[in-house]
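Entry for the shared binder. Reason: the reviewer on the internal report wants the predicted structure included alongside the sequence.
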Amino acid sequence: MPLPEKLRSWMPKPIMRWLIDSDILIEGERGHPAFEVWRQTPDEFATADIIRAEFLLGVHAVGDPRKRVRGETFYRNRIASISSFANESGDFEIAARLAGEARRLGKGNPSLVDGLLAAIAIRHGATVATRNVGDFRAMGCACENPLEHPPR
């Protein structure tokens, strides 16, 4: 029997340990073995809707039709099934502040997409899995490069 709505709101929400950036998804598409580690623990990782869009933008921008098909197939078979978070309206202000301050202070050059992923990670208490650790650290966001340091 399903829980009454009142009780469901008191249930603890699962904590996502890792948020995967697009550069890690790209490495997965290229066959990097670290990506398969993520697939073995689906309850510990997610991505973000904005990262899905960023990955697909790259796929559709590729001139080689075979690479486009390979990217689209990888997306359908591997990425589409990964849990994904949407940005909330407050994330946009936070993202702009984080990325803008990092740029102004000369700490890095994070994009708006990086800022949006950082805002989601901070909101959920997650660590961003990325090769771009410099820009995420410049925004004060927990991050690690799982290609250099496999997840524990």
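Summary line for the report: The CA atoms of residues 38 and 45 lie 7 Å apart.
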